[in-house]
Amino acid sequence: MENRREFLGHIKKLLLVSPAAGMFLDHIFADGPAPESKYDMAAHYWAMSIDIYQCIGCGNCVAACAKENGVPEGYFRTWVERYSVDEWPEEHPRVESPDGGKQGYGEAAKPGAKNFFVPKLCNHCEKSPCVQVCPVGATFESPDGVVLVDKSYCLGCRYCVQACPYGCRYILPGEHVVDKCTFCYHRITRGLTTACAETCPTGARTLADLKDPKDPIHEFLRTNSVQVLKPHMATRSKLYYRGLDHSVR
């Protein structure tokens, strides 16, 4: 059986990843799972389904993400917004997300209005503006479809922060490098789901593998009217929403 170093060498040659990406993947797999767990990056393509009708705004996902990934207080890899929409004008809804929704929400801000919750995180776009503008290749899409950041290469120039149309990136305080959602890459490469999906009590969030023909995502996409955020940006987002109101921005 080939050792871990040989395994990673073969993967990087086959998938033609950049030097920054290669070093990052070395770090990810330093303590496993390759090759014993036989995780094959080329065999997966990760996405996420989000069911607005099922989200209750409890904030469990935000708290779990912060704990799992060591997110600093006041910063968020994922957050939940509450929308309150009057009958008119719908294009000007009230949007709030105190502390990222981590503590949940109380009574509706506008009784009688249409109120709903929208979980947000990195969209892991196929055509990511952040990847395109990074001057050193620190931001890249992994072969299995996850947009990642190699912090050892990141300059902290903020180009990607400005380029992201979804507001999903921030500069880590004290480190001056970018941080964002990684779909809990250290978990999914070991056969686990994301921390946010694992703690959701209603199943509003579900990690999906688009390359797995048996994954429920295919039924979800086939049987529901599915939307993405800001479709006019043509980023080919891999967050698929059910029940996304047209007032959501």
Describe this structure in words.
There is one protein chain. 23% of the residues lie in helices and 18% in strands. It has a four-stranded mixed β-sheet. It has a three-stranded antiparallel β-sheet with strand order 3-2-4, with helices on one face. The protein is of the alpha+beta class. The model is unreliable at 1-5 and 31-36 (pLDDT under 50). It has helices at 4-15, 19-28, 60-69, 129-133, 159-163, 185-188, 195-199, 217-223; strands at residues 46-51, 78-85, 94-96, 114-121, 139-141, 147-149, 170-171, 178-179, 205-209, 226-227, 239-242. It has one domain: Alpha-Beta Plaits. The protein has eight helices and eleven strands.
Kindly report how far apart the N and C termini lie.
51 Å
Helix amount, in percent?
A: 10-25%
In the CATH classification, which architecture applies? 2-Layer Sandwich
The arrangement of helices and strands along the chain is HHEHEEEHEEHEEHHEHEE
Give the helix/strand class: alpha+beta
Strand content: 15-25%
Low-confidence stretches: 1-5, 31-36
Q: Numbering strands along the chain, what is their spatial order in the largest sheet?
A: 9-1-11-10
Which key terms come to mind for this protein?
249 residues, alpha+beta, Alpha-Beta Plaits, 3-stranded antiparallel sheet, 11 strands, disordered N terminus
Summarize the structure.
The protein has 249 residues and is α+β, with helices and mostly antiparallel strands.
Describe the secondary structure blueprint for this structure.
Elements: H1 4-15, H2 19-28, E1 46-51, H3 60-69, E2 78-85, E3 94-96, E4 114-121, H4 129-133, E5 139-141, E6 147-149, H5 159-163, E7 170-171, E8 178-179, H6 185-188, H7 195-199, E9 205-209, H8 217-223, E10 226-227, E11 239-242
Parallel strand pairs: 1-11
Antiparallel strand pairs: 1-9, 2-3, 2-4, 5-6, 7-8, 10-11
